[in-house]
Fold:
Amino acid sequence: APTRCRLFGEDYVLFRDKTGVARALTDRCAHRRAPLSDGKITPEGWVECPYHGWRFDGQDGRCRSIPNLSADEPVPAGYGVDAFATRELGGFVFVATPPTAGAVAPLPALDNAGNSTSHQGSAFLATPYRALMAALLDAPSLMLDIRGVQVVDDNFYGEPYRDNAGHFITERAADWTALARKRKKVVPDYPLQLRTETLPGDSITHLALHTDAFAPVLNATLAVTPVSDCVTAVHWQATVHKPEDPAFTPAVHRTLEKLDFTVPDAIDARTLLARHPYASSLWQDTLPGLLLARSSR
Ligand code: FES
Structure:
């Protein structure tokens, strides 16, 4: 069925055409602006307006059929809605706006492989995009709910940096919560490390949590998506691993049994304000383009 998605305050209708390709159109009928996302998909793979049945081709947005035209009466040229290029990767649909943007730039495949548990979700936060990116880069503990793990926001391993491909990378310490409770305030060596890798211009951030022996504990991909000026969606998928290490204590084993990941629907603004905007000040990027939704079939 057609799906409505919002980006920068604009509504789009997403649907799959007959061949299964994800299509994106302005979610306003060219006739009387009814939401096409309330319509249905026709046998031709077009989207049909729920009001008076105009049908639109997802490939170019052209109106292909108007019910009250006679059989030999063509649909007037120029009737149509804006169509947007899409690209689908790793369970996400990317949409290029404006329509003149053409094809979405190629993106690396999302890393969601693994022999452990994978799951996904979406959070909608009443936080502007840039503030949320600042939270992710400066205080990931506010945005990443990793059960049994504490991210040590201010304990960086080296400077955040941008690699040759333009990916912005941070590396910082993390700790098992069960052990953190018993620790002194200053810990020279933490048992875990969290790496964030934000891709240029497309709102995707890969997370990798691993032990100090580089055994993966969690891999996740976050798509931080500006829905409007003040609401940002975070679509995510995560793979939880269960590494083995003879050094693990029983408490760590118990933590691994219950390890889970989610993104909460709100962040603590007071805590964010208390963080120094260090990594986010190094992260300079254009507004992301333009993930609308997780894909589904
Ligand atoms: S409003 Fe869409 S067909 Fe009339």
Notes: Confidence is low (pLDDT under 50) at residues 100-112, 285-292. Residues 29, 31-32, 34, 49, 51-54 surround FE2/S2 (inorganic) cluster (CB under 6 Å).
